[in-house]
Amino acid sequence: MTVDFPFARSLIVVRSNRTEKKTQQTSTESRYYLSSVPPQDYTAAQWIGLIRGHWAGVEIRNHWRRDALMGEDRSRSRHPNLLANLALLRNALLAILADHFDGLSLPQIREQLNAHPTQSLNILCS
Q1: Backbone φ, ψ for residue 25 (5° rounding)
Q2: 0.90 cut: is pTM over it?
Q3: With 15 labelled, which of 44, 73, 111, 118 sits at a CA distance of 20 to 30 A?
Q4: CA-based nearest residue to 43, from 85, 4, 12
């Protein structure tokens, strides 16, 4: 198999089997991962651990902050342009907050900004 990624050294295929309890129907899903690491550098179990660790980190670092703190999943809109624009604004806000409040958690930042609303405007204007 040839892929157009010049630094790809490994193609990892993870197949998952799923059985629906009500109907007992089984389905198989394949997910593909590329890596610049040669395949022999890790065992199958280590590759799986790396993949799971990556997605766990994505969930903690990104999705939880965007959902729990900013209510992203509560949006009822299904308009793709609106959702994409809101995601861009959330990303920008997370980057700005990280620059201005180094070492504070997002709940702490939110409490501080709630207590001092003018600080929000100062940050946006800086």
Answers
A1: -80, 135
A2: no
A3: 73
A4: 12
Residue matched to tokens 């999705």:
63
- Alpha-carbon 39 to chain mean position: 25
For residue 75, the one-letter residue type is S
Residue 67 has pLDDT above 90, yes or no: no
Q: pLDDT tens digits for 95-124?
A: 888 889 988 888 899 899 999 999 989 988
The helix-helix angle for 80-100 and 117-125 (nearest 10°) equals 100
* Euclidean distance between CA atoms 75 and 84, whole angstroms: 12
Query: Taking the CB of residue 40, how many other CB atoms lie within 10 A of it?
Result: 8
Contact 55, 37 (CB under 8 A): no
111 HSE (CA, 13 A, CB side): 5
C-alpha to C-alpha distance for 25 and 22, rounded to whole angstroms = 8
